[in-house]
Amino acid sequence: MRTLLDLELVALTKRYGSTVAVDAVSHLFPSGSYVCLLGPSGCGKSSTLRMIAGHEAVSDGAIILAGKDISKLPPAQRGTAMMFQNYALFPHLSVIDNVAFSLKMKGVEKPERHRAAAEMLELVDMAALAQRMPAQLSGGQQQRIALARALITKPQVLLLDEPLSALDPFLRIRMRAELKRLQRELGITFLHVTHGQDEALALADQVVVMNNAVIEQAGSARDVFNAPNTEFVARFMGGHNVLTLAGQKQALRADRTRLARSGEGLPATVTSVEFQGAHVAVGLSGTTGGEFTALVPEADFYADPFALGDAAVAAWSPQHLHSLAK
User: Fold this and answer.
1) Torsion angle, CA of 232/236/241/244, rounded to 10 degrees?
2) pLDDT in tens, 23-64
3) Please, which residues bridge with residue 269 across strands?
4) Which structural domain range is residue 211 located in?
5) Strand arrangement, sheet containing 206-211
6) pTM assigned to the model
7) How far apart are CA 190 and CA 177, in angstroms?
8) How many separate domains does the chain show?
9) Is the CB of residue 263 less than 8 Å from the CB of residue 313?
């Protein structure tokens, strides 16, 4: 349902010379939602984010926020704020002065801007480190400070450019939960660019998959994962086999692919075995349908383990097959 505070892209286009980085993209981002722009490197997701932020000029089209075309406004007047991938903290400023910097540029007096910065530091649980310098902070702490600095302007839309990519895997998972908590608490739109499928599935109310400068598919995280429209989306989201059966391309989740020694199904040869904790990923080469994977529960696999080169039969319930449009 459309609201007055939605962010909408209308035929948004970005050209670099003869190269089209974003090709007439139109999409509505609902107000107050957590949206992940997902896709491989070079698909146009970061260019889209930077155009919304005002850090890239728009070649064609419009960016509508709260009913107003902001595409030609300077970044500070858009109602957006951007958190950069490298955090871009000023090394010579304390934590509190980093957070307060944008208010200083607006002419806000020091006591007032420090009061606002202290509130933001409380929000991200960094109040105790207000007087430290960036070099004295861990990567996760730097990320929280960059987040507080972006939020101090009270934006309608927070733009995040791969904000978790510099963190180690354990901290990345912890900070995912922190970002989701903040978005719910603040109630503003978060637009988060990532190439990580797990990150998008964990965070997003809406996933927007980009490929070759256009949106390939958009929808809830669950819908995009369970019902990919195209072979690209099925393969990029992971967890799916793409099989050609009776001349039709079908998607089948790997965890819904059953393995047996014999019986009805697709004859195959085991090409790899990878222990993944709760599951074992068994790579298979079918006589038809090509290469695919079965995710077998760990206890089931080790009750009768397959070895490389073993013959196997893959089977599934027909309702678990999903036809692809292309």
Assistant:
1) 10
2) 999 999 999 999 999 999 999 999 999 999 999 999 999 999
3) 285, 311
4) 7-226
5) 80-83, 157-161, 189-194, 34-38, 206-211, 214-219
6) 0.88
7) 14
8) 2
9) yes
